[in-house]
Design brief:
Blueprint (H helix, E strand, L loop, with lengths): L9 H22 L6 H7 L4 H4 L6 H25 L6 H13 L2 H12 L7 H25 L5 H22 L3 H9 L10 H20 L5
Helix pairs in contact: 1-2, 1-4, 4-5, 4-6, 4-7, 5-8, 5-10, 6-8, 7-8, 8-10
Amino acid sequence: MPEFQRARSKEAKLARESAILDAARGLAHQQGIRRITLTDIADAVDMHKSALLRYFETREQIFLRLTAEGWRDWSAAVRHALESLKDPSPAAVAGVFAGTLAERGMFCDLLAQAPMNLERNVSIESVREFKLITLTELDAIITVLRHTLPQLTESDGVDLVAAATSLAGAMWQISTPGEEVEELYRSDPRLGHALVDFEPRLTRVLTALIEGMSRIDAPESG
């Protein structure tokens, strides 16, 4: 491995951080978050692990940064899709949430990992920065959501986004088992229920949630 040269200027430091994030992103797409070590990321950018720690506190901070990036990307996609709906029914809105999440498998994986691992091995300031980013994107989604479905309250919007993201994180893990485990599920009829079709199931659950919220929040007649 060639000798690592520490970035001196602000621009060089940002470029090095970007390279590290790109490497972690690529590895995550190939292997999933849980299997990737800090050494794996360092090797991918041709850097010693101790040198990489000059730019990020831990592997968890790297993936927490990618989770924040994922929130920005997903938020923009959800808002655009909601604004494009011609028939904003509960099922259509649920389909937007489920569809945009289904297209972002790595983000779903990160959503599951963030509260369990990523927020637990970083500084408080890193957690604060991450939470403020998610809060900004949450507010932006709720603004468009309430314009799309005016019967929903702000609290409904918070609950819907929380349900969509937490369910997506869990369902993604269930719907993407390892090859051997998936083959086991397919080969034994008794275990077929363990095969989860991510987008349709998430759409059904979110549709039921939105319909329930709409009935509860609808003004009484008479």
